[in-house]
Amino acid sequence: MRVRVVTSLYPGAPRPFEGIFAERRWLGMRARGHEVRVLHPQPRTFWPLSLAYAEIHRMPREELRAGIAVRRPRYTHLPGRALGNAERFARCALAHLDLLSDRERPDVVVCDYAWPASALAPYLAERGVPCVVSGRGSDVLEVAGEAGLAAPLARNLRAAGHWCGVSAELVETMDRLAQRPGRGVLVPNGVDTQLFAPRERAAARRELGRASDEPWVLVVGHLIARKDPALALEAFRRAGLERARLFFLGRGPLAGELGRRIGEAGLAQRVELVGEVSPEDLARWYAAAHAVLLTSRREGRPNVVLEALASGRPVVATAAGGTAEVVADERMLVRSRDPAELGARLAALVADPPGPAALAASVAHLSWAASLDALEALLEAAVAEHAVA
Hints:
Number of helices: 17
Structural class: alpha/beta
Strand content: 15-25%
Number of domains: 2
Distance between the termini: 19 Å
Shape: globular
Number of strands: 16
CATH superfamily of the largest domain: Glycogen Phosphorylase B
Strand order of the largest sheet: 4-5-2-1-7-8-9-10
CATH architecture of the largest domain: 3-Layer(aba) Sandwich
Largest sheet: 8 strands, mixed
CATH topology of the largest domain: Rossmann fold
C-alpha cells in the first residue's frame, strides 16, 4: 500500500526523541513492504519565539529518516485558536499530499495523533481518499474533554469512517464520540523486547558511569501538567526510602518549577533532573533502577509502563487511561492520587519486588509484530471498504 501519514508528532532534529514510538510504527510498516511517507506540518507563529518554537523553526523542511521521506511544510498558528489552527494544519497538509497523480495518489492516509490531524478527514472524504484516524491519548481525551472540542473531533471521525486507539478505553471514547459503537480498532504500541529486557543492575549502572548501591526510582516522561511530576516527587518523599535516589528522565516546561520544589523539600542531594535520553540509554536506566513511578492524570497506554515491565522492573502507576490494561499486578496500580498511598506502594515494591522474568513475561505478547498486524489489517480494510463503496 501507498501510505501517507499526516501527523503533528514525529521525531526530527532538534527533537530526535519526540514521538519516537510513532516513527517505530511506520518503520515497521515500511519493513513490511509498504510505501510510507510522512507529512509533519509545523506551526509558524509571528509571536516572539519561545524555546519550543525556536526548536520547531530549526526542523528541516525535508529529510529522509531511515528510508522514510518526511516533509514539514509550515502553517500559520495563532495562540488560543485551536479550531482555526487545526483547519490551517489540515489545509497545509492537503496542499502537500499528492492527490492529483494516479502514480503518487495514496491508497490510504493516516491521521496519526488525532488532533489536529483528523481535521484533514472531511477534505479527504470529499476527494474519495480512504482515511484512518489514530488516537494516542491526550489527542482524544484532553481534546474532547477540557479543550471543549468534542463536536469537531466527532465530525472528523465520522468523515474518516475508520479509527484506532492504543488502548481499549481510547477506542471506546472514539466510538462514543462518533456514535459508532464497535467501529474502532485497538492498535496498541508494541515494545522492543530486545532493547528493553531484564539485565544485571550493577552492570547497567557501570555503563551509565554511576556505580552505586542505593535504590533508584525513575520518573520517565515529559515534565508537563498531565504527567504531574510534582505528585511523583511528593510520593517519593512520602515513601521514606532514606537511601534511595529519584531521577526524572525527560524535559518540559515544568522543569524549573520542579527544580524549585526539589530544593524546598530538601531533596537536592537525592533527586536529579537528568533530562531527555536516547532509547539505548533509557534501557540502561531501566535496568539500573529498582522501580519506576508514573503519576499521570491522563494516559493512552503508556510506553513507559511497557518498557519498564519488559525490562523486569516494577511500576507504581496511577490507574489512568489504558495503564490498567497492561498492569495485571494490583500492587503496582494505585486508584487514587494520594501521595501517601503512592509512596507506601513504592516503598513496598522496592523492598519486595516481583521477579524480573515474571514482569517481562507479562508484556511479552505486546510485540511490535502484533501491533503491526493489527494496523496492517485496519488499513487494508479501509482501502477495501472504499473500493466497494
